[in-house]
Amino acid sequence: MIKLNIDIEDIIAVLKKNKYFNEWYSYVKDILESPEFQKRKLYLHHDDSVYHHCISVSFESYLLASKLHADKRICAIAGLLHDFYPKAWQFTQELYEKHPDAIRTKRSLLKMHGFVHAKEAAKNYQKYYPNLIDKKITNTIKTHMFPLTIVPPRYKEGWIVSLADKIISFRTINIKSIPKLLGLSSPQFKTSKINH
Ligand SMILES: [Fe+2]
Ligand SMILES: [Fe+2]
């Protein structure tokens, strides 16, 4: 059963047990509380929400940045916004009812999610969080799907977020879901089994 509309308190309660929580949270709190990011609770990321997936990638990126002496703030923010594309790839009845504009229509192969969403996210974050515009954040978001998209990350932080995204995604991998994981299958419309 897919658990959408997950409470931030539930996620934070788990992460708070980590000694690095406070610093990570200071970098991402404003984004997490913003209405546009909250909307990602209704965007599906396979059997998770984009909201929860992105928090996981952000925290993993932040921890990797600590170990690898990279910029922790850049990694926390870019990790959180790496899938901040405007239109939902998989969607639910609840998203359709609350935010019909967030529904993506079917696309051709070369415009499939896996190929285009990183570029869209890099543009979309600048629209909603102009105060965070930064060349490292932009490049990190834009290249996080490497090697599916050809251009590699330009900065160390980009390699970290790209790796963290794969670590988080592959933790729950199912061989049959690889095309879906890479955004190479058709959009899906899920209408049932949503917890409120
Ligand atoms: Fe992505
Ligand atoms: Fe992702």
Would you give an account of this structure?
This protein has 196 residues and is mainly α. The chain has a single domain (8-190), classed as Orthogonal Bundle (Hypothetical protein af1432), CATH 1.10.3210. It contains ten helices and four strands, in the order H-H-H-E-E-H-H-E-H-H-H-H-H-E. Helix 2 packs parallel to helix 5 (72-81) and helix 8 (135-142) runs parallel beside helix 9. The longest helix is centred in the first third of the chain and has 19 residues, at 50-68. Residues 186-196 have low confidence and may be disordered. One fe (ii) ion (FE2) binds at residues 82-83, 117-118, 144-145.
Briefly, what is this?
With 196 residues, the protein is mainly alpha-helical. Helices cover 53% and strands 5% of the residues. Strand 1 and strand 2 form a beta hairpin.
Give the count of structural domains: 1
Q: What sequence of helices (H) and strands (E) makes up the elements?
A: HHHEEHHEHHHHHE
Shape: globular
Instruction: Work out the strand percent.
Output: 5-15%
How are the SSEs placed, and which strands pair?
Elements: H1 8-15, H2 21-33, H3 35-38, E1 44-45, E2 48-49, H4 50-68, H5 72-81, E3 90-92, H6 93-98, H7 113-128, H8 135-142, H9 156-170, H10 178-181, E4 188-190
Parallel strand pairs: 3-4
Antiparallel strand pairs: 1-2
The structure holds fe (ii) ion (2 copies).
Main features:
single chain; 196 residues; mainly alpha; Hypothetical protein af1432; two-stranded antiparallel ribbon; two-stranded parallel sheet; 5% strand; disordered C terminus; binds fe (ii) ion
